[in-house]
Specification:
Helix content is 34%, strand content 26%. With 68 residues, the protein is an alpha+beta fold. It has a single domain (3-61), classed as 2-Layer Sandwich (Macrophage Migration Inhibitory Factor). It has a two-stranded parallel ribbon. A two-stranded antiparallel sheet has the order 3-4. Strand 1, helix 1 and strand 2 form a beta-alpha-beta unit. The longest helix is centred in the middle third of the chain and has 19 residues, at 14-32. It is elongated and about 40 Å long.
């Protein structure tokens, strides 16, 4: 029973997340040889003020709306 956790910055639409979980679930079924019903996908979303790369907050480095 795979549990797949996706960590990403907030801002994706419901449609984008739905498309993503369909693709991830399909690949997990194929690669791990499990039933679709066994695959769980969890999104952990973060504000860009709570995420940094190379010593700079994403809200400053990338600006509002990046990735949307």
């Amino acid at each position: 029973m795979p549990i797949i956790t996706i960590k990403l910055a907030k801002g994706r639409t419901r449609e984008q997340k739905q498309q993503f979980v369909e693709m991830v679930t399909q690949e997990a079924v194929k690669t791990l040889n499990v039933k679709k019903e066994w695959v769980t996908v969890i999104f952990e979303e973060y504000e860009r003020d709570n995420w940094a790369t190379s010593g700079q907050l994403h809200s400053i480095k990338l600006g509002d709306g990046f990735g949307q």
